[in-house]
Amino acid sequence: MYLDKAVAFCDFNDDVQVIIHLFKYEGMVSLSDNMAKIIAGAFQYDLDFQVADLIIPVPLNLSRKRERGYNQSELLGKTVSRLSGVKMEHKAMRRVRDTKTQTKLNHQQRLKNVSNAFKIKSPQIIAGKSIILLDDVITTGATMNACAKALKDAGAKNVLALALVKA
User: Fold this and answer.
1) Rounded CA gap, 151 and 102, in Å?
2) Into how many domains does the chain fold?
3) CA–centroid distance for 142 within its chain
4) 24 phi and psi, to 5 degrees?
5) In CATH, what number is assigned to the domain containing residue 64?
6) What is the pTM of this model?
């Protein structure tokens, strides 16, 4: 496991599923500010998040971003960055391999699906830094862990996962 810590604010349930679906797949981007305010709560009670250097949203594949019109993690990151004062670097990491959606995959399939799917564009931005990796949902942690591996390989001091939902 490459993550040093993972925090999510609510468990997955039917109501949360509807909200996440509206946000990710129905274009209801107006939900992002309130969701980000909840996520930013981590900075009020956890010193590890308070002293972080950068927020990096989990990148989407370019075709999926074009299809959706936005990266939901990036939208959340903008508000979390503004509220916390921690700079967001949304171009620091990219998804270099088109991966299948993970919604129907088991844990082992998820790990394989995202293995080596992420690369750091500018390691000098990452080296020696404490990074907050931001996403809307953590399920098995496979995606966050794959991102954390890329960040650690680029010299990140530590990687903290932060999400709204734990599924």
Assistant:
1) 21
2) 1
3) 11
4) -85, -35
5) 3.40.50.2020
6) 0.89
